[in-house]
Design a protein that fits this description.
By secondary structure, this protein is α/β, with parallel strands linked by helices. The chain folds into two domains: about 140 residues, 3-Layer(aba) Sandwich (Rossmann fold); about 110 residues, Rossmann fold. Helix content is about 45%, strand content about 15%. It is built from eleven helices and eight strands. It has a four-stranded parallel sheet, with helices on both faces. Strands 6-5-7-8 form a four-stranded parallel sheet, with helices on both faces. Helix 1 links the parallel strand 1 and strand 2. The longest helix has 17 residues. It is globular and about 55 Å long.
Length: about 260
């Protein structure tokens, strides 16, 4: 079934990434290569906000722009959108402001997929500033008792591609620590890391399945869109003022 899916970057990544706009094109080509036949994937990014999200504060900064872009995509008739950040920033609010559009958080999708293929999963992520938000994110997914731990590679998001060999070594070391703590599945806890396709390398090194959040988000978006499984509007109702006719911009007033 033909469908259109948008991969939505909740920050203007290309303004700070060493690859600039070429990085967006690279990611779109990877997504298209991983997509099912008949699926068209496009990368969209917001025009302002944090170029990379490495803290809870930056997650909240991304909300208004991302919500507006999702409403635009919904109006353009897209079938689904994958949020381009492992932290699923403000996912509950994004559910509230969309109705027809299938919206997928890749972190949440990855946790549930990991719980399907193993008993206990560990997350390899960027740095210590993300550990707390990821633990809260896992708890929000209802899978806190399946989390073996979180390991970090101590590499900023915008520097992921500087020395891939060094990054692979750090990621493998973190994954081994998590396996020693009981993890039988590893989740890559960063979309930039996932776009470097480190999963097969880590899996060969530590011998357990590795969930790539880009793939998890994409396959979840395709499956839900195919079967029309949108988020429940009883759980995530449209904001009352918006339902009464206000725009999202109307909800924010400046003195």
């Amino acid at each position: 079934m033909p469908m259109r899916i948008a991969y939505v970057l909740p920050g203007p990544l290309s303004l700070r990434h060493p690859g600039g706009a070429k990085e967006l094109q690279r990611r779109q080509e990877i997504l298209q290569g991983w997509a099912a036949p008949g699926t068209t994937v496009v990368v969209r990014q917001v025009t302002e906000g944090p170029p990379s999200i490495e803290s809870a504060y930056e997650e909240y900064l991304s909300l208004a722009q991302t919500a507006g872009l999702l409403q635009q995509l919904q109006g353009e008739g897209f079938d689904a959108a994958v949020i381009g950040c492992f932290g699923d920033p403000c996912l509950d609010a994004l559910y509230e402001v969309t109705e027809q559009l299938v919206v997928v958080g890749p972190g949440d999708a990855s946790f549930h997929l990991a719980a399907m293929v193993g008993e206990s999963f560990g997350v390899v992520t960027v740095d210590d500033g993300i550990v707390g938000p990821i633990r809260r994110q896992v708890a929000g997914s209802g899978l806190a008792d399946r989390l073996a731990g979180v390991a970090v590679v101590e590499t900023p998001v915008l520097e992921m591609s500087d020395d891939v060999g060094e990054l692979v070594g750090r990621a493998c070391a973190g994954a081994r620590q998590l396996v020693d703590r009981g993890a039988d599945t590893i989740v890559l806890g960063c979309m930039s890391m996932a776009f470097l396709d480190l999963g097969p390398l880590i899996e060969a090194e530590v011998g357990v399945p590795v969930v790539n959040p880009v793939q998890a988000g994409l396959m979840t978006a395709e499956g839900r869109a195919r079967f029309g499984l949108r988020h429940s509007k009883r759980a995530y109702p449209l904001p009352r003022k918006v339902a009464a006719g206000a725009s999202l911009a109307d909800l924010y007033v400046r003195a």
